[in-house]
Design goal:
This protein has helices spanning about 1-20, 70-75, 100-105, 115, 150-155, 190-200, 225-235, 240-250, 300-315, 325-330, 340-350; strands at about 20-25, 40-45, 50-55, 60-65, 80, 125-130, 135-140, 165-170, 175, 180-185, 205-210, 215-220, 235-240, 265, 280-285, 290-295, 315-320. The chain is α+β, with helices and mostly antiparallel strands. The strands form four sheets. Strands 13-10-12-11-15-16-14-17 form an eight-stranded antiparallel β-sheet. A hairpin with a 4-residue loop joins β15 and β16 (about 290-295). The longest helix is centred in the first third of the chain and has 17 residues, at about 1-20. The radius of gyration is 21 Å and the shape is globular. The two termini are about 30 Å apart.
Length: about 375
């Protein structure tokens, strides 16, 4: 494996000297996210395997090309998990998903349980990475109290490979919940948001929530006594085969996500009232994440401006999560940055990748 790192370092050096770019590729399951980028492919899947795992310390160190499914299987065998439920977005044809650990961190995407336990970045303890000058760097450590350089590992989460090539990552893991239950309620969007925010302020083991098409579905997870007590407090209808439902939300195989219409992802405060969004919507994370199916064609740019204005007015932002390249190029994938934030992004790119080697333009032009 050390030979692989040396090869990567050499390729980065060569690309920097030649003024060329590299396109970081893992399993390819998140390739739809962000703008398409040019450059010679650098395949991280060849650098795989668990480097160290201490179940009693709740820490695992793993190489970036390791299949996410392999890591989750290893953790499951020890009664542990990645609590933020990262989506795989695999082939969807019965094949083993190809998502990698490096792609999980780089994309920074979390699943249904994120509102209860935190996001990917909250569980990244340390990273080993290659920067745009071809230097192998290590940041952070393997314990939460390690503060020196801790912000850099968190910074890599969601950077879409624009700052450097992740080689290894140290992750905090947690025990699997002892008990779980899923309940369903018929109610309007406004009522669902009101209840979710009220319940969120109570000592209830809420692990996930979804509202769609007049139905609120909530998942309870934790100690047996806590789940049982919450069931009596909340009422609702028990859901059979709940695991399949939550998997469909996590992996976006739920009917709401089907089809080729643009998919928007709005991040707002959970207490935000219904936004009167166009098209159909699905709400997660206690009201903080609002998915919207948009329209294609000539009306799409106007709709994009409307959605981003609504999100901004609510103190949030709107991301064009899935769409064709033409619409992405027209309206941009991510919310436009203010001048101060854009300057910060450019300075970070300059510090980590001064020669523009990695995934240039994946998030914003030139970055």
């Amino acid at each position: 494996m050390e030979a692989t790192l040396k090869e990567w370092i050499g390729r980065v050096h060569d690309a920097a000297e030649a003024g060329k770019s590299l396109r970081i590729c893992g399993g390819g399951t998140k390739g739809f996210y962000g703008h398409a980028v040019d450059g010679e492919a650098l395949d991280t899947s060849v650098y795989h395997g668990i480097v160290a795992y201490e179940p009693t310390e709740l820490v695992v160190v793993v190489r970036a090309g390791t299949p996410l499914a392999d890591l989750e299987a290893e953790l499951l065998g020890r009664g542990q998990c990645l609590p933020f439920e990262p989506p795989h977005f695999g082939p969807g044809d019965g094949a083993v998903p190809k998502a990698t650990v490096g792609g999980m961190v780089s994309a920074g995407l979390s699943g249904p349980r994120r509102a209860a336990v935190g996001a990917v970045r909250d569980y990244v303890l340390g990273v080993k990475m290659i920067d745009g000058k071809g230097e192998l760097l290590s940041f952070g450590g393997q314990v939460m109290k390690n503060v020196a350089g801790y912000d850099v590992p968190r910074l890599m989460a969601g950077s879409l490979g624009t700052l450097g090539l992740i080689a290894e990552v140290a992750l905090k893991v947690l025990p699997l919940p002892v008990a779980g239950m899923t309940l369903r309620f018929a109610m309007s969007e406004a009522e669902a948001l009101q209840k979710l925010n009220r319940w969120g302020g109570q000592p209830l083991p809420l692990a996930a929530s979804v509202w769609h098409d007049g139905v609120l579905t909530v998942r309870l997870a934790g100690a047996v006594a806590a789940v049982s007590a919450a069931r009596k407090t909340l009422g609702g209808e028990d859901v059979d085969n709940a695991g399949a439902f939550w998997q469909s939300v996590r992996e976006q195989t739920h009917d709401f996500f089907a089809g080729g219409a643009p998919l928007w992802r709005l991040s707002v405060a959970s207490v935000t009232a219904p936004l009167g969004l166009p098209g159909t919507s699905l709400i997660e994370w206690g009201g903080a994440l609002r998915w919207v199916r948009g329209t294609a064609g000539a009306a799409a740019p106007d709709e994009a401006r409307q959605l981003r204005a609504l999100a901004a007015a609510a103190g949030g932002h709107a991301t064009l999560f899935r769409a064709d390249d033409a619409l992405k190029s027209s309206v941009g994938v991510f919310q436009p940055l203010s001048s101060p934030l854009l300057k910060i992004h450019r300075n970070l790119k300059k510090a980590f990748d001064p020669n523009g080697v990695f995934n240039v333009g994946r998030m914003y032009p030139g970055i």
